[in-house]
Amino acid sequence: MDERTAIQRLKTGDMNALEFVVLRYQVKALRTANFITRDLKLAEDVVQDCFLRLPRAVRSFDASRPFEPWLMRVVVRAAVKAAQSDDRNVRAGAEADATWLENLLGGAPSAEDEVEALEFQRRVLEALQSLSPRQRAVLVQRYFLGWSEKEMSAELGVAAGTVKWLLNRARSRMQAVFRKGAQDER
Predict the structure, then answer these.
(1) What is the number of structural domains in the chain?
(2) Looking at residue 35, which CATH number applies to its domain?
(3) What is the domain extent for residue 28?
(4) What is the pLDDT of residues 41-87, one digit of tens each?
(5) pTM (predicted TM-score)
């Protein structure tokens, strides 16, 4: 079964087609939600809810357009909403951070590379923690999902200048955290 056939079948209520879609997109959807929520369990809940709602939501999908960007928009919206309303949006402890990083980024091949990778991951995590869910979302949309500013503007329902401002603000905050970390190491 190909994607187009699966979407058509899902639109008609064929639940077997849902399995194809889930298997194809669950990893990317989970990573996307996890980047935004910073909580693997919450991200899993968000993605599961998105897939459970998919048979009804896909009816409004325009089959002449690509499916993946549409689905990832659904996931991003749900993840931002969950992160903003979730009481667990407070910074997690070091143990939870380490688990999150291990699940998100995996290990490095050698001991030296692993030490460097863990330090880099720690710095990325620290920088991401300084961002709001909305700022994390624009970074995920731009750099993980590869969306253009035009696509992001349409998705967020804001002017292109607002998207540029959000991206600039998020990048600036990340850079500031990285600079501070480099200064602290000296």
Answers:
(1) 1
(2) 1.10.1740.10
(3) 1-90
(4) 999 999 999 999 999 999 989 988 899 999 999 999 999 999 988 64
(5) 0.64
